[in-house]
Structure formats: structure tokens, C-alpha cells
Amino acid sequence: NINQLSNSRVAYAVVSCDSLEFYSYNNTDLLAINPYLKRAEKETYNLTISSQEGGKIISGDSGNYVAGTEISLKAEANSGYRFEGWASEAGNFLNALDSETIFIMPAQETSIIAKFVKEQKEYKFVVEAQEGGSIISDISGNCKAGDKIPIEAKVNTGYNFIGWEAENGIFENSKLLKTNFIMPEQDVTIKAKFQKNIVDNYGGGGSSGGYIPGPVVTDPVIVPSSVPTLSPSQMPSLSPRPSATTVTTSIPDQTQVPVITPEITPTPLPIPEFSQTPEATLTPSASPVVGENNNTSSLAKLKKGSKVKDKKTKAVYKIISTGKNKTAEYVKSTKKNTADIVIPASVKLKGKTFKVVSIEKGAFKNNKKLKSVKIGKNVKAIAKEAFSGCKKLVKVKMGKNINSIGAKAFSNCTSLTIITIPSKVKKIGKKAFYKCKNLRYIDVKTKKLKPGSIGSNAFGDGYRNPRIKMDKSVWMQYQNILESKGLSNKAVFIVNPDKLVI
Questions:
Q1: Chain centroid to CA 107: how far?
Q2: Average pLDDT over residues 162-185
Q3: Cβ-count burial of 62 within 10 angstroms (0-12 exposed, 13-18 middle, 19+ buried)?
């Protein structure tokens, strides 16, 4: 009875069917009649609207909404990106195709996000063959960065296959005729490289792939006379030559001189582009260095800190110690346009043998020609910025006794594709492999690395999904350490005994 409400302490309410919104009867406000009544309200829930990198929200605001409310959403992609869809906090796509849509508020707190992906630009890919072979599968055309492109070449008779070389100096695979090339973020031309086969005359293997085995001959063996004085060991394919006295008198005089087969000419041997000599290069000859002061073969003038040029290899060394254990540091090479460098295990200076134990700071910094480096077994330390900025450096073979890699030692070596961290390495400096954009394979042999022994960004801003191999006993620890030092979080970790497939 409405007439009794004003005197009653019992709470009465007249409600409508839609969400307990009204408290009136015959236009009478029940709250005015009885102060013990409380007005009911519709329940609201929080909505958060955000955007991933690559775009922005045009319409749709975060805030509190009643369940069932329609919210207009609109997102816009930045240049170089495309809209992928709206996703809820559970990962469901609300509308995978339309950047402009309607979202119905549920009866719970919700977060939704506009998702964007980077547009994959296509780059021009060309595959060619140098003289000496041909391309079997020519798939030249436009490709996206990261595409795996199968390539295969064929070797002509009389030639050896050297490797696949991109225009930036990368040997994709120096031995396999059939391989895969990973497309970089740029136009690229890749060539199959061949070399004339001279194995028949000078010894060594005969299969395609790799370089000519055996010592590299730098001076012609043939003497400038009508009768060469080649020994059988130098020319194993030649049969013994008849002497002039064994020729009959009926043969004209000009035939009395043995004739050299057409394959053997006084022309110097072509030297492979990868000009490292065999292991003998690491152990210099016992004879005094050519070009040094032969009148002072003692250590009288070789004091600690003095620099000496080995005129045989044109490398400069700094003397570290002259005592019983004579040691030196590799300072630099004075050769011009040298693509391949061997840092020996030891070197002979002034008639005395010194172990080469380190590479000086900035030894090859910003070298524009360097493509490969082989480091001797006695080298223990690679100093700061030793190879920094060597943009054509592809191949580095480290000695087994290296224990320290300095800060920025290989930073900005953008062509470096694979590196092995030797088993004795205890320290890797700050930005040691920073911005090595093509460093796809890292074989970690050492178990001696700690969080504090690796500098910040040691592997920062590098290849987006590299493969890292290491021992099973350290991989969980190393994964966290390396990622904290800039390694891509998309890296694939491979543990022994699995192989690092290249």
C-alpha cells in the first residue's frame, strides 16, 4: 500500500524489467518517501584497448563499459606494416581482416590489442656461373628476405668448383655444388665459382670442390732452356725422357731434344683466390728472414716493445718478451689488397723464433679487402677492435688456445656467417660480435663463460634467428646469458650430440 510507505521502516521497491533501473510508482520517487531504499545501478567492466608496434588506434577508448555495450574500433598501420587483426587477451582474433569493427563488451574485464606485421619486401635475386661450369636450377627472380633458395651448379671437365660467392663476398658453401641460399634484405647476385683443374700436372686430388691440394707453387719450376730440368717428383705423370745419345741418326737434329707435353708450359701456376699456403705457413723457414739486417742476427736490438717487420710475410710484430720463452704480438700486415691472412703460431725474427701469443688492438680495423683469417695455435688473446668493421670478412678459424676475445673484436663484420668459440675462452668483451647481421651459426665449445665474463651487447643487433650449438650441460645457463647479452630471442639452441647443420 503506497499510502503506508511513509510511515513504514520496511524497504519497498518497484522495479522495471530492464536492469533494476526505476524506483517509482505513479511518478512517486520511493527514495523521497523512504530513505532506507537504495537505487540500483548496472554493473560495468574495465576494457583496455592497445596497439602493437607498427600501427595505432584511431577510434575506441579504454575505460569501463556495461556488458553488451557496442564499441567502435578502428586501427591504422604505419608505413611498411599491415594490419593483422584484433586479438583478445586469450589470443582470439575478433576480426582478422577488418581494421574497423564493432566489439561487444562481455561481462568481464577484457584487454584487446590491434596486431600488425611488417610487410616483407621482395628483393631481386640473380644466380650466375663463372667460366668452367653452369647453373642447373636457375630460379633468378624476386624473393623475400629469409627465403631458402635451392641452388645447384655443374662443373665442366677440366675445372674445379670453388664455392658460391655473393656480391658482398659471402661464400655460402665452399664445397657443395647443391645447397640452399638464405635471401638477405637486399638485392643480391650469387655466382658459382670455378677454377681450371691443374691437378694432372702438379699432383693432388682430382674431385671437384675445394682448392688445389699440395703446396702452392709461387715460382715456375721450368728453366728457360730448350731442355727443362724437371725432377720425377715434381712431374709424376711424366715418363723418363730419353737422352740425346739414344736418338738414332736418322731422326733430324731438332728431334734430339726431348719435347715437353703441351700441358707443361713456363707459364706460372694460377694461384687460388683463397691464397693461404699449407700448414708450412704457420711454421716459418729456419733460414733468416729475407730483407732483415743479416749482420745482427742476435737479440741485441730486439727489446721488449720494439716492432719488427717480417719481410717474408710483410707482417709487423711487437716483441713482448726476449727471455727463455720468446713471445711476440701480431701488429698488422703491410700487404696491400690482401684478402686472406694467416697469423702464425710462431715467427722467426733476427734469427730467433718467437711464439705469436696475441693480436694487437685494431690490427685489421675497417679493412676493406679481408675475407678470411686463420689464427695460429699459440695465440691466446684477440685485442679490442682487432677485426672491427671488416665488412667482407667471411671465414675466421680461431686457434684452440684463445681464451679472450676483446671488446668490438668482430663488431660490424656483416659478412661473417659462422664462428666457433674455442674451448678455453673465458671472456668475450662488450659488443664483440655486435651488428654481425649474417652470423647465423655459433658453435660454442667453451664451458667457462659466466654472466660477468661476457660484455653487454656482445651478440646484439645480429642475425634474427641464429643457430647456437653447445654442450648439454650448459645450454640452459648459456641460453639465458647469451640472450641477456643481445642474442636474438628467436635463436635455435642445439645441444650435443646433435650436429650443427649448415
A1: 51
A2: 73
A3: middle
